[in-house]
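Hi all, long-time lurker, first post. I run a small reading group and we've been trying to get comfortable going from sequence to structure in the token notation. Rather than ask abstract questions, I figured I'd post a concrete chain and ask someone more experienced to write out its structure so we can walk through it together at our next meeting. Sequence below, copied exactly:
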Amino acid sequence: MLLEPALHASDMIRKEEVYKIGLFNKPHGVKGELSFTFVDDIFDRVDCDYLICQMDGILVPFFIEEYRFKSGTVALVKLEGVDTAEDARRFTNVEVYFPVKYRQEDVEAGYPASWHYFEGFYVDDVRHGRLGQVLHVDDSTANVLFTISRPDGELLVPVSEELVLHVDHLARVIRMELPDGLLEL
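-- Answer (accepted) --
Happy to help. Here is the structure in token form:
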């Protein structure tokens, strides 16, 4: 039986303390390994020995026993306490998060942030003010797009380093200067 770590209310991980780095796909083999599709391999670069999964609406840390890369975007991960294919099935299609506090360490080491890191950030434009919150990042093409939640619906905004003026990691705000006319489309 899979044992989850006990958390007290004061130890609860809050959504603003993490960012999504990928998804567990399905079990690999019979010893509890999981196929993990990731958009940011920060777990391989910083000194943090756990991943955070959203289980039943709660963010729960799980210690990494070992992992190995299968490709540039897929790793096979073995979590502590997950020792059978049956245990691993509980993680199928589970979102995987990483603590934001390690992002600064990664930036200082010279690694740029994955665009997915900005999911949950608010976007402010120099001319239009607060545009909304980034719900999703589409980086499937050369032109990366933020899907921004607004009271009147969703807004797609192209994003590149040239359009970003400043990032406040603590307040989770991106200040941008969007091209004239873009919001009228």
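A couple of things your group might point at:
Confidence is low (pLDDT under 50) at residues 1-10.
The radius of gyration is 18 Å.
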